[in-house]
Amino acid sequence: MLRPQFRPLAAGVSAFCQSSLRLAALRGYATQVYSSPDSDASTALSGAGSQADYEPVKMRTYKPRTPGLRHLKRPINDHLWKGRPYLPLTFPKKGHGKGGRNNQGVITVRHRGGGHKRRIRTVDFERWAPGPHLVERIEYDPGRSAHIALLTQKANGKKSYIVAAEGMRAGDVVHSYRQGIPKDLLDSMGGVIDPGVLASKTAWRGNCLPMHMIPVGTNVFNVGSQAKGGAVFCRSAGTYATVISKEEETREDGSKVVTGRFVVVRLQSGEIRRVSKDACATIGVASNVMHHYRQLGKAGRKRWLNIRPTVRGLAMNAFEHPHGGGRGKSKGNRIPTSPWGTPSKGGFKTRRKSNINKWVVTPRVRNMGKRRDKKTA
User: Fold this and answer.
1) Which residues does the UniProt record annotate as the domain Large ribosomal subunit protein uL2 RNA-binding (predicted)?
2) Taking residues 65-84, what's their average pLDDT?
């Protein structure tokens, strides 16, 4: 019989975490490990507060019965659906597109190929359907790092997939207000839009709102850029943007009205950009925030994910890479370059100065080839 493996808990772990550790002991060879959290993830989850208020990083490790399990570390996602996806919203991923090739068979993305058989989940990034939607379950999606939620529209029973917000669970009810404020909600405010009351009734986790309805300082994900398009920013696990400012004017009765065409948001890279005031955004943080703490544990798990090995240019032949060929370990007294000859070190600029993105207010800080200190970033 396998004996459960226990490890001492970090300081400040709650009683709930201790009870969940006892449940993990039933697995026999699995253990929950707690460590200090990442500053960005903890701030997004718990908001402003002291370090003692932050959630610890919870990962599941395994007793090294095999070499592949020794370094395996995974986020704890016991709430995910264990069955198959909703098949009418999926289609198979087949053909040479799995190998990083375009429609002419040319490899445009290297180091792709193989991998497990997959079905593509059709995710709704526009969310035009109004009314309440019931969250049936939270599912794993092999095509993205964040989790997805299966919704059922209460009016007609139609099902759809959306990117789940962190903390969203089965049984929650979410709304979309992209087509405007519902009449019953407007009547409850006395027929006059009060921004404070409106935000308290609509700005809830998982709700999709146009940017002009979202209060300043709110964390959002699945952010769109155009009025009629879907979400294009902050769609991967643990990502979010922050609403910085809106062009508003205060009327005589004290109400605020958005007069400008754009809303300014700050992305996690530090870039500040403008998006349309009618663009969509979902309240909260994209789910699976502990995704970047995972360790695959073995090379085979990388191959299951459709990722092939990367070979150093120095180990190639001369016709395959500028660093290849020669006798012994030699790259020909050449500066580090890509396979196509572009310098890969020292912050070599490839962007044209005339190609300016007019939507960017403040560009992100670039390292110019230098390593960034994570503590000061």
Assistant:
1) 100-176
2) 95
